[in-house]
Amino acid sequence: MHGGGQVFDGAEAVRRYFELSRTPFPDQDNEIISIAADEAADTVLVEFWLTGTHTGPLRVGDRVIPPTGHNFRVRMAASFEFAPGSDKIICERPYFDQGAVLRGLKLA
Known about the structure:
It contains two helices and eight strands; from the N terminus they run E-E-H-E-E-E-E-E-E-H. By secondary structure, it is of the alpha+beta class. The protein has a single domain (2-104), classed as Nuclear Transport Factor 2, Chain: A. A hairpin with a 6-residue loop joins strand 7 and strand 8. The two termini are 26 Å apart.
């Protein structure tokens, strides 16, 4: 999984990423806008709204921001690459404005 210039490689690293990203936003959800598949390349592109409510501590660099109770809704896209001939995702690449969540929470 790639995101924000970071790479989370392997099941353990990806699980840790999801744990950390759900701590500040336990109700995090995706509202699908559109999906496109390229079977020849074993790739799916998804456009979606990422939503959530800031109810847990949020780590931004070295700071921890206490819960604000604010909601956010950020438009994103992600590509998913699958192992040939299977339903196993081998790579996800999310694309989004990293400051959008902070602006949505009125923190930037």
